[in-house]
Automatic annotation (TrEMBL):
Cellular-component GO terms for this entry: synaptonemal complex
GO annotation terms (biological process): reciprocal meiotic recombination
Lineage: Eukaryota, Fungi, Dikarya, Ascomycota, Pezizomycotina
Keyword list, A-Z: Metal-binding, Zinc, Zinc-finger
Organism whose genome encodes this protein: Pleomassaria siparia CBS 279.74
Name assigned to this protein: RING-type domain-containing protein
Length: 167
């Protein structure tokens, strides 16, 4: 299964499928968030990573990266470089993906804990509601039962005495 990058802006979290803005502090953003936060400005001064607030002053601290490079690009991008440089570049690339994967796990664990806490609160509220409803039902059943234990009034008793007085 291919790992899918997500925008590191916590309000966005969109999957990054075609292009992404990558920082030297190992964060990645969709182009929309990079534009909104000023990360993709051409001016290098005052650029700051929205995720960790690292100052990004050098021109290559922020790059727009195509996530689906052509076969020709893959063939030529590292051609001519020494095996040491190629290994270093590959190592940094793998470290980036490792960092992104670990950050995704931390984010998902945070979400799971948050949802578990909310579920616990809702479950507790539901239990209290059910308890209160059952108490109300019991109270109403007791009232109904209380009205059934009163001696029945016969309609004929009151009318008979009035009828006999009329004769």
């Amino acid at each position: 299964m291919e790992y899918v990058l997500r925008c590191n802006d916590l309000k966005c979290r969109h999957q990054l499928l075609d292009r992404a803005v990558v920082t030297t502090c190992s964060h990645v953003f969709c182009t929309r968030c990079a534009d909104t936060t000023g990360l993709s400005r051409t001016s290098n001064s005052n650029r700051q990573c929205p995720a960790c607030e690292t100052q990004l002053m050098n021109p290559n601290d922020v790059v727009v990266q195509g996530l689906n490079p052509s076969e020709d690009y893959k063939t030529s991008v590292l051609s001519g470089l020494s095996p040491t440089v190629i290994t270093e570049v590959a190592s940094r690339g793998l470290a980036f993906y490792s960092y992104q994967a670990s950050q995704e796990i931390i984010y998902q664990e945070h979400l799971a804990k948050s949802l578990t806490d909310k579920f616990g609160d809702l479950n507790q509220n539901m239990d209290q509601l059910i308890h209160d409803a059952n108490s109300q039902i019991q109270l109403l059943q007791d009232r109904i039962q209380g009205t059934r234990t009163l001696p029945p009034i016969t309609c004929g008793q009151g009318l008979t005495s009035q009828s006999s007085n009329a004769n």
